[in-house]
């Protein structure tokens, strides 16, 4: 019971902090002081206090977009184990639901964008769909690798099995391939650099941000919170795989998980600081490499 | 030689009598321009001026002959309702012809895309588009080139932009991510400066020059002052010339550094973006050290400069520059060392040398295509005669080339500023003193002055009447030549690369709109 309370508190409260950490890391590396660590929380509070400006050309779809996205992402998160703590909901084949909840969220974000009739948002929707068509199979290949390794079709068992125990010497390289592939998918799915620039003001270059340009106030708050949660979920996915079970102590394993996930945020901040964004036509090359890395890893394990 | 009779050759900033300019028949005038441009001359200015005869306009062409370091000027008399367009044979004239049509309601017959330039009412009682006088004219409203097709979509950007930039409207015709055509509509910042200058100069005039283009205060003021000094036959002190050169180069430094920072920002490369943002401010502060204003407003006056530098100030500046030079160099070299940055800059927004010639590009954009166009070297005035500057060029004509040329020019300018300050130090006065002279302005004269502002060639032409007042004062900001370059560079480019292409030119909206 206590574990569940900790699990849910971390799940609900922590996601915005990761964005604060990324921004702080970027500021530090650029020689700036940067916004406060808790700025993402302040932003959310500010947005939820605001009124909304709604374009006259939009329909109910425009409202449905952020709400469905928010709910799907939140439910998807319940299927994901956090470190050594098992997922809140867990059943055989839950990883398929997990992947398609993300798909559902994406579908509603894009049709809400199309609903505005703006040329910018249509462009963003087209980009989002194109890129996700490459990342989604990559994600599935990664899942299948863990299905194969653990012999289970449930996320908690799949991810929490200590990989370092299962794999022998020959399995090390393909696991590294999956981890690299997942890291790329993490950046792409969360519209981080080098795929997308979350800080840019240039609509013509955006992918995710441009789809939510017309949203404001609480709806925008929901979108941003959902984006924070999505980043948190995928980071804990990565963290759970990389971080081995080093202790049976519940408290210590939570500390380990938190450190791991913060390190991932710092890592993302470092990547964003040291490289420029990719040219749009080159993004597919990067995403295909993630797809191929996860796919080849699966082939190696199945062989 | 044909061209000898058609044109009079004049030097930068040297006035001539109006009646010395050959007056050609319209046909001969057009032929002469066509031929000279074919021979590699380029258009510095092309404008109309009201004529004393009812129903006629004067048309002036100022061509620049880079090779022989002189201007070629000619004029003709045209009917006030139409003249022959050369835009299809000499694309660099197209915007000038549209401008004439808009200002005087005189139609360039055969112009392929006759649209307003700045969306204002005509200065005369006739309008090229038959718009009524009481009818409000909205900038950017009108026909745009359209492409039809299943997969073609149109993207309209601006006039209000997300960043802190000036207003301008960009209309893209795209197929997927690819831009097939870009049309740019400006005029939102039109303030009617050229019209207001007719009948001057007076005390206000210099202040107009200060804000023609807010980031090119020194460039435009310098050109104006040299025009007035030429018309007054005033020779300014050597010291003033050096001070003016320093101010012009400081303006270049601040803007080039700022541009490279913004380019880095647009591709999400944070280190250079953050460093350059700060360093640009430091260079601006050096201008403030001389003039009390970061953009050098009110610094230049006909006859010299408003302020001088004391010995102490010079020493302070030299020390600061020593520090800044290294910081600037470090921040910029990060760009050239990073693969991911180069991958974005290279092969984006390419303009070939030939396109550069045809469009009549000037400044950084021209030098990035390999064209050796730099007024400081080809037609030097003031301090540049004594302290020559070498032209920095690149060959590839892409965003990288435009950025790299800026990087090279930053080095040249720092060297120049240090040397010039050293000159001043040799006989620095302890107290700041003013150097002004006055005389009366020559009547019935024609003068053209060009300078290399940080963006490129700034051209001012003054024509005076019987009383020495401006009958016409024609201003050409480098942006006026280069905007078409942005549109052409975007063809078949990814639309998501528009921001960096645009920023690599960094043209002025208000300098264009006047």
Question: How would you characterize the overall build of this protein?
Answer:
The complex is a heterodimer of chains A (303) and B (514). Chain A is mostly helical and 303 residues long. Chain A has one domain. In chain A, 72% of the residues lie in helices and 0% in strands. Chain A is built from 13 helices and no strands. In chain A, helix 2 crosses helix 12, helix 5 (94-115) runs antiparallel to helix 6 (119-150) and helix 6 runs parallel beside helix 13. Chain B folds into 2 domains: 2-109, Beta Polymerase, domain 2 (2-Layer Sandwich); 193-429 and 436-513, Orthogonal Bundle (Cytochrome-c3 Hydrogenase, chain B). Helix content of chain B is 41%, strand content 18%. Chain B contains 18 helices and 16 strands. Chain B has helices at residues 2-6, 26-38, 94-104, 193-197, 205-210, 217-231, 238-266, 270-291, 311-337, 339-345, 353-359, 363-367, 375-378, 383-386, 399-426, 478-489, 498-505, 510-513; strands spanning 8-10, 16-17, 23-24, 42-50, 56-65, 70-79, 82-84, 107-109, 152-157, 169-175, 178-185, 300-301, 304-305, 445-452, 457-464, 470-476. In chain B, strands 1, 3, 4, 5 and 6 form a 5-stranded mixed β-sheet that branches. In chain B, strands 2-14-15-16 form a 4-stranded antiparallel β-sheet. In chain B, helix 7 runs antiparallel to helix 15 (399-426) and helix 15 (399-426) packs parallel to helix 17. The longest helix of chain B is centred in the middle third of the chain and has 29 residues, at 238-266. The radius of gyration of chain B is 23 Å and the shape is globular. The two termini of chain B are 38 Å apart. The interface between A and B is medium-sized, with 31 and 31 residues.
